[in-house]
Structures are given as structure tokens and as C-alpha cells.
Design a protein that fits this description.
With 119 residues, this protein is an alpha/beta fold. It is built from 1 helix and 8 strands, in the order H-E-E-E-E-E-E-E-E.
Length: 119
């Protein structure tokens, strides 16, 4: 029986497993709530997580209650941006360390008074 193709496959699987375990062991969690200028939660706002060193980019749409969660985030410094229709883009910076759980809430400012449905 010939097993020449299995050894490279096992090597690749081992590398992937080690990377997954390392990111899970040393990973952080980032969560928060996005609200508007009057304190109402913002469903479907886009939250963008940009890593400064690892060049990681993740995007998440907030839930109906305005909440977002990024799990298994590698330790790094990040810029977090939030975009939502009729509101100015909000930006914050955060440093995530291993095993940390960080809450980063946003209060969005109205972009202009001409947006429909916004008082």
C-alpha cells in the first residue's frame, strides 16, 4: 500500500490544528452595544475590527438589541469602527490581551437631520 500522499496531508492538518489551538488558548473576546444619539440600540450596525499587527479584519452586524461579540480574537491592538445608516462612523482603539474580555460600547452621532425616520 502506498501512503506517500498521506504524510503531507497530515503535516498540513497538524499545522492547522496547532494554529487553531494557539489562537483559542491565547485569544480574547470583544463585545459591546451600539446605541444612537438618544440611547436607542442600533440593530444591523456594522462593526469592523481591524488588527494593527496581524492585519486581521472581521466584520459583524449587531443583533436586534444592538449587541456584538467577537470571539477567539488574537492578542493585538485594534481599531474598532461602527457604521450605521444616518450616523457618523465611530472609531475607538483597544488593546486585547490574552484571556481578556473587553466591553466596548458605542454611542453614534446623527450625521444630518435630513435622514428619514430620524427625529
Amino acid at each position: 500500500m502506498q501512503f506517500s500522499g498521506i504524510k503531507p496531508l497530515l503535516s498540513v492538518l497538524l499545522v492547522l490544528l496547532v494554529n487553531f489551538l494557539a489562537s483559542s488558548i491565547f485569544a480574547a473576546e470583544l463585545n459591546g452595544t451600539v446605541r444612537d444619539h438618544v440611547g436607542a440600540t442600533q440593530p444591523k450596525a456594522t462593526v469592523i475590527l481591524l488588527g494593527q499587527n496581524a492585519k486581521l479584519e472581521r466584520r459583524f452586524k449587531t443583533a436586534a438589541d444592538g449587541h456584538y461579540t467577537f470571539t477567539a480574537v488574537p492578542t493585538d491592538r485594534y481599531e474598532v469602527m461602527v457604521r450605521s445608516t444616518c450616523f457618523r462612523m465611530a472609531k475607538k482603539r483597544v488593546r486585547l490581551q490574552q484571556h481578556s474580555r473587553v466591553t466596548l460600547d458605542f454611542a453614534l452621532e446623527l450625521q444630518n437631520s435630513h435622514c428619514s425616520g430620524i427625529d
